[in-house]
């Protein structure tokens, strides 16, 4: 299999990211296309072996054996946690260095060779991974294309050079995932590699010093990587290590030896043994329930209220824009003057659209249009924005950089404020932590858990992402009336939405095709869970890097309080503990109102925001004659 962006496979869309989680699922989709219903053997080399090991843990009932050549079972995960001290060429970085690295790689010009032989020789003499000529020829002939002038151009997507997903596999997650593996695993490594030395720290340290020759290495900061390798192997139930002579591409340089080692292993492990492995349990469903966290429906059903408001009109002047952001159509609404001194981007929850910020925008235009410019965004697949291509998954980490791309599209050179609602908080936290010099304030409305999950749920979430994607109908449902379509929007949400909220959201998510025919334009795949939700460690790293003031404005209502008392979720508590790692001034306010307080209680919500912004020098807004609500006694403001 040529991974996306490599060999003869197509490149990812410009707005997409290359990452291990999605490619692991693609491996299973390839098996599905081939009609492989019975358990099969999976084999990978280097990064591909890490993917194969990942697949063996997620799709445990479908993998009969895993042959991993020159991989580390994702042991490089500790690079992420310790990379500042270690200074290694890491296997995974946080979002901060990824954004400028990605932008740099997009501008790289693919290398051109005068002849095919030059391309082969370039690959053969790679100083990091030297290889036999036959190996280099096999790789180069799939990596170059002949130009009209007779020269050869490298076709490998330049974005793959360091463009890794911001949600890397951390050691704790790695150990948890490996423990799910049911099949026997063979790890073939060269004798001179770091895996071969995993049991001898002195030799391991000397080898790493020689290989990377980095002056930042010390025995202390290399130790975590060494320990991580050992922990990874120990967490895998049935793993066999075989050492061979050769270089990194030993499977191609010396296929006879590798075949012999692999066949001996397979004969011993699977020739006669029966294989039975159950698929992973849906842990999130069993522990938390389908409705995602903490919101109960009120006694009055949404259907009973649907006729109260047929529709709403956006009263105040706003402008609509369709932006081409890395090839993706993103639709936004702008309230206030483009020349306003204070600017903010509003990022909706994954079940809403930019219409959910209409009420805030109306009030801004009514009371202070020359002071604040608010841009609300239809995230990809929602509202009027375009859908992602089928080989991409909707994911908050991949979308987070779009916040910066949108600000760049409007030429916002000065720092701006980010307003996020509910699960969209993860994107705000990640951007504010990645590039604090671009963000002057972060406002989280009814922040719950930033959509993050603990390590023990990761393998299960990946598998059920694959299952839901496979079973999702891509046809958009049609309805005979606008009211019926609104009922659909109400029923498909796991958050209670008043009819006022529904009306604002429906204006952008419902479209009339012809008389008595309405359609919901939201991408049905938006309902599929992410193959790589933010890890607690991902959010922790983002939070500890935030240097801008942060406001957590939460709603208080009886339904929410009752459920939290009856079912205090470990997931929620663990996530909230991360807030205490903030190194910036943060404020927590609670106001009476619904989960959509920025719609149902918009004026009071905005006044809390303005008071906080003025108090923390985020904005300096003249309220004029508008009433200002001061912070309540239950507010908490602290600086660490």
From TrEMBL:
Transmembrane segments: none
Source species taxonomy: Eukaryota, Sar, Stramenopiles, Bigyra, Labyrinthulomycetes
Name by which UniProt lists this protein: AB hydrolase-1 domain-containing protein
Organism this protein belongs to: Aplanochytrium stocchinoi
InterPro entries (UniProt xref): AB_hydrolase_1, AB_hydrolase_fold, AB_hydrolase_sf
Gene Ontology CC, one term: membrane
All residue ranges annotated as the AB hydrolase-1 domain in the record: 1-71
One Pfam match: Abhydrolase_1
Source organism superkingdom: Eukaryota
PANTHER family: HYDROLASE, PUTATIVE (AFU_ORTHOLOGUE AFUA_2G14860)-RELATED, MONOACYLGLYCEROL LIPASE
């Amino acid at each position: 299999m040529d991974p996306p962006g490599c060999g003869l496979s197509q490149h990812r869309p410009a707005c997409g990211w290359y990452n291990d989680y999605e490619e692991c699922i693609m491996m299973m989709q390839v098996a599905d296309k081939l009609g492989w219903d019975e358990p099969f053997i999976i084999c990978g080399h280097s990064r591909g072996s890490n993917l194969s090991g990942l697949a063996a843990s997620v799709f445990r009932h479908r993998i009969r054996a895993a042959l991993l050549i020159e991989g580390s079972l994702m042991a490089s995960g500790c690079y992420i946690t310790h990379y500042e001290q270690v200074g290694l060429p890491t296997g995974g970085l946080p979002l901060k260095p990824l954004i400028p690295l990605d932008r740099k790689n997009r501008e790289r010009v693919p290398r051109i060779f005068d002849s095919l032989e030059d391309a082969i020789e370039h690959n053969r003499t790679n100083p990091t991974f030297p290889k036999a000529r036959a190996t280099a020829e096999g790789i180069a002939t799939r990596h170059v294309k002949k130009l009209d002038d007779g020269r050869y151009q490298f076709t490998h997507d330049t974005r793959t050079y360091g463009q890794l997903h911001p949600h890397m596999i951390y050691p704790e997650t790695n150990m948890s995932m490996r423990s799910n593996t049911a099949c026997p695993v063979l790890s073939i490594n060269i004798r001179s590699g770091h895996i071969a030395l995993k049991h001898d720290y002195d030799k391991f340290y000397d080898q790493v010093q020689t290989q990377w020759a980095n002056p930042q290495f010390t025995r202390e900061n290399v130790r975590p990587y060494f320990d991580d390798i050992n922990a990874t192997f120990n967490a895998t139930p049935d793993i066999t290590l075989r050492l061979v002579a050769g270089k990194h591409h030993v499977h191609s340089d010396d296929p006879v030896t590798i075949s012999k080692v692999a066949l001996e292993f397979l004969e011993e492990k699977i020739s006669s043994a029966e294989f039975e492995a159950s698929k992973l349990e849906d842990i999130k469903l069993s522990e938390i329930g389908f409705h995602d966290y903490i919101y109960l429906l009120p006694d009055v059903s949404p259907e009973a209220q649907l006729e109260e408001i047929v529709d709403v009109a956006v009263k105040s002047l706003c402008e609509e824009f369709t932006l081409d952001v890395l090839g993706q159509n993103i639709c936004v609404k702008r309230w206030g003057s483009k020349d306003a001194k204070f600017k903010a981007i509003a990022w909706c929850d994954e079940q809403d659209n930019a219409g959910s910020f209409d009420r805030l925008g109306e009030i801004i235009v009514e009371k202070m249009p020359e002071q604040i410019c608010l841009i609300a965004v239809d995230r990809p697949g929602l509202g009027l924005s375009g859908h992602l291509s089928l080989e991409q998954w909707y994911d908050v980490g991949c979308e987070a950089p779009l916040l910066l791309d949108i600000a760049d599209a409007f030429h916002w050179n000065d720092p701006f404020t980010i307003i996020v609602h509910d699960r969209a908080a993860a994107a705000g936290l990640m951007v504010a932590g990645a590039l604090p010099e671009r963000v002057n304030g972060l406002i989280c409305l009814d922040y719950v858990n930033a959509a993050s999950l603990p390590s023990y749920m990761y393998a299960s979430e990946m598998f059920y992402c694959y299952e839901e994607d496979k079973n999702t109908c891509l046809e958009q449902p049609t309805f005979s009336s606008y009211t019926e379509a609104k009922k659909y929007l109400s029923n498909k949400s796991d958050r209670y939405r008043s009819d006022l909220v529904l009306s604002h959201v429906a204006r952008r998510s419902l479209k009339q095709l012809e008389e008595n025919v309405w359609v919901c334009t939201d991408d049905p795949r938006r309902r599929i869970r992410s193959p790589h939700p933010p890890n607690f460690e991902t959010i922790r790293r983002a939070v500890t890097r935030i240097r801008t003031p942060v406001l957590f404005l939460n709603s208080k209502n009886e339904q929410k309080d009752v459920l939290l008392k009856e079912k205090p979720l470990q997931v929620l508590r663990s996530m909230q503990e991360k807030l205490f790692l903030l190194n910036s001034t943060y404020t927590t306010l609670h106001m009476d109102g619904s989960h959509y307080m920025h719609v149902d209680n918009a004026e009071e919500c905005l006044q809390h925001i303005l008071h906080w912004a003025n108090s923390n020098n985020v904005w300096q807004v003249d309220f004029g004659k508008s009433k200002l609500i001061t912070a309540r006694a239950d507010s908490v403001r602290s600086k660490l």
